[in-house]
Amino acid sequence: MSQGEPTSQVNELLRQGIEAARAGQRAVARALLEQVVQQDERNEKGWFWLAAVTDDPHEKQICLGNVLVINPDNERARRLLQQLEEAAGLVLPTEEESKSQGPGRTSVYLAIGTGIAAVALLIVVLAIVLSSKGNDGGDVSSGERPQSPPVAAITPTSETSAALLATATKPPVPASPTAPPPTWTPAPSKTPTSAVPPTLFPPPPATLTGQIIMRSGNVPADPANQPIVLVRPDGSAARTITPPNTRGHAPALSPNGNEYAYVMYAVGTREYILQLDNLQGTDPRPASVYWTGKPTLIEQDMPTWSPDGRALAFVARSLDSATPDLYYLQVIDRQGDPAQLQRLTNDDTIESWPVFSPDGSRIVYVADLSRMAPANPVDLRALDLNSRQMFPITTNGAALIEAAPDWSPDGQTIVFQGKASGSQHFDIYQVPATGGTPELLIASDADDIQPRFSPDGNYLVFSSNRSGNWDVFIFEFATQTIYQVTSGAQTDVANDWGP
Q1: Domain coordinates in residue numbering, the chain
Q2: What does the radius of gyration of the chain's CA atoms come to, in whole angstroms?
Q3: Angle at 335 between CA 331 and CA 339, to 5 degrees
Q4: 469 with 445: CB under 8 angstroms?
């Protein structure tokens, strides 16, 4: 069926395939979408969504090439195909070159019955894609330019962006436990390689403001710690701000954007030291200068700034404690006043990932109860800094393992990475700041971690190994589009987006 309107059966298969893709069920989606393009080889939407649920770059080329033959005006497909071709070392013809070559003579439609991978990419696709733009006509195999497709042209909308990135929303949270502790740190790709993975997602808009701070480098022997790097949200102007041969993790930008805190890994003593510095690297100091005379704190980790920039919250373990606790540290001077350090928790709960509310009155954090209640190991809690009362944000216990929360600038929402029972990967969820049932926000068949709001609350920065390597991505709430900030062989894991 290559001509006319798609049948109701094709439309239903397409609808089911799109729903499966959005829910992260890629194998199911692929089987359904292959049926769509078998029955309607000119189904632009079917080819486009099929490109979303296959991981093989060669197969994506085939699918996106067919999208462009059906609809040469699909700029999103053209951009993704260009990125694939550039990564593969091929050169896509310019529009002028394509027009000068004239129409192609070979059919570009692909037999799906034996699977996409069994079909060789027809290079003629690249030669005729642009030459077929803007004209009516018959089947390409007869030497004529293709007709207008039976399905409306796909433009860069929230729907197509979600498809290419397997974004899902609002699934049920499963209910039985299997997960690492909430302080899990992503490992790099199993086999370090110098090859640059293909960039399959569009770059962020150049209009995005602020700066993203991340750990970025290629130290395979120490994947959890890398140099600390600043980069613009569009991926430009990256620069290392830690001293040479210094590496660490969990960097956080001050509210004014002039300072940062991070956890430095001391190679000699193998300690984790909470460190502060300005962005010019001229004022490095350990946070311990602020609590002179206080007991030693080990395993210092996960710093976060108060909204006014006068304090840090972090986790650490004292020598008299078996588990990490939450600490609050004023950083307004260096006089060594013991009152500048306050211990917020002192129990058998493993506390981690503190983040201030926008008004500075509360801290959301991860509470691991596995030492006391193994059946209900991990949930999110909020601590009121005035009353020191704790309030539950999630109560799903083992059904979902939470980590790395962040509070929206308007105070209404908390996002976090979570691993649902039975899942092999972390996804990104959101939950009302007053508590409730988490909703799935971003999902893939890889790990999506450490979501952090943009200063205006309209975007999230997060990190993922969905490309086969740890890279940084941005999610836009309004359109549900995902953009790719970094690509390369190095480990890139973002932890904050500041002014």
Answers
A1: 8-159, 211-498
A2: 25
A3: 65
A4: no
Helix and strand numbers (H, E) in the chain are 8, 24
Fold of 8-159: 1.25.40
Residue 342: the pLDDT is 94
- Dist. CA 327–CA 300, nearest whole Å: 10
46 closest CA partner among 119, 151, 128, 122: 151
Residues (pLDDT < 70) of the chain are: 1-6, 20-25, 85-199, 375-376
Q: How far apart are the first and last CA of the chain?
A: 54
E strand residue ranges, 290-426: 297-305, 311-318, 325-330, 341-343, 350-356, 362-368, 378-384, 390-392, 400-407, 413-420
Amino acid at 443: A
Cβ distance 347 to 383 under 8 Å?
A: no
- The strand pair at 297-305 and 448-453 is best described as unpaired
CA pair distance 222, 201, nearest whole angstrom: 28
Burial (Cβ within 10 Å: 0-12, 13-18, ≥19) of residue 82:
middle
117-145 per-position pLDDT tens digit: 333 333 333 333 333 333 333 332 233 33
* Cα–Cα distance, 105 to 217 (Å, whole number): 48
What phi, psi does 423 have (nearest 5°)? -85, 155
Secondary structure element (H or E) that encloses residue 27, with its range? helix 26-39
pLDDT digits (tens, 9 = 90+) for 18-33: 876 666 667 777 888 8
CATH topology of domain 211-498: Neuraminidase (2.120.10)
| Alpha carbon distance 33, 16 (integer Å) | 9
- Nearest 5 degrees, angle CA 432-CA 433-CA 435? 70
